[in-house]
Amino acid sequence: QKEVEQNSGPLSVPEGAIASLNCTYSDRGSQSFFWYRQYSGKSPELIMSIYSNGDKEDGRFTAQLNKASQYVSLLIRDSQPSDSATYLCAVKRSGGGADGLTFGKGTHLIIQP
Amino acid sequence: SAVISQKPSRDICQRGTSLTIQCQVDSQVTMMFWYRQQPGQSLTLIATANQGSEATYESGFVIDKFPISRPNLTFSTLTVSNMSPEDSSIYLCSGAQTMNREQYFGPGTRLTVT
């Protein structure tokens, strides 16, 4: 069973601080990694994708990937109350067959004003 | 990114009946997928919808229970058959323009089975 693990939280961060979300995965052959944000009652919204080792920055968001450690993280700088949501880590499985994503259970992030 | 719509947005159905959910994308995508999100849980892949051929199902999901069609690149349907209360979930369609690349999700269909 190929798995994606996240701390379910809640993770509480003061407004303006950096929120750090972490994810580990078991499929060593995975090549594609994604972070989704999901507000309560809404569908997941893609916020970051990362495919190679290192950092990828997009505005206030930075995704970090370390394939050797099978670890991917998301940093949110200058956290805003509107960032309060569940963040889902998703990994595309390696190998043939279906090309869908395996999701972690999500981390519930709360930004305290 | 692709814009994806789903119909219906929600429904309440009787045990033993079937519901067909429609998914439409606004641009030609290579890949379409169906996921389920049970209450308080994360997303689980049901199947990959293949254009003009049978869908590829994940372990634990079978065609008799979740028949899927994809007659063209931009449209797919998922049927939840012979429903039971355990099928109460949000069903989500997603699309990706190329393999290995970003998937975008529709708004979901919230199904309640009584």
If you had to describe this structure to a student in words, what would you say it looks like?
Chain A has 113 residues and is an all-beta fold. Chain A has no helices and 11 strands. Chain B has no helices and 11 strands. Chains A and B meet through strand 4, strand 5, strand 9 and strand 10 of A and strand 4, strand 5, strand 9 and strand 10 of B.
Q: What's the shape of chain A?
A: globular
Distance between the termini of chain A: 40 Å
Largest interface: A-B, 24 and 26 residues
Outline type of chain B: globular
Count of DSSP strands of chain B:
11
Number of helices of chain A: 0
Low-confidence stretches of chain B: none
Helical content class of chain A? under 10%
Task: Sketch the major β-sheet of chain A.
Answer: 6 strands, mixed
| Average pLDDT rating of chain B | 93
The computed structural class of chain A is: mainly beta
Number of strand segments of chain A: 11
N-to-C CA distance of chain B: 36 Å
| Rg of chain B (C-alpha, Å) | 13 Å
The structure class of chain B reads mainly beta
| Subunit arrangement of the protein | heterodimer
Q: What is the mean predicted local confidence, pLDDT of chain A?
A: 94
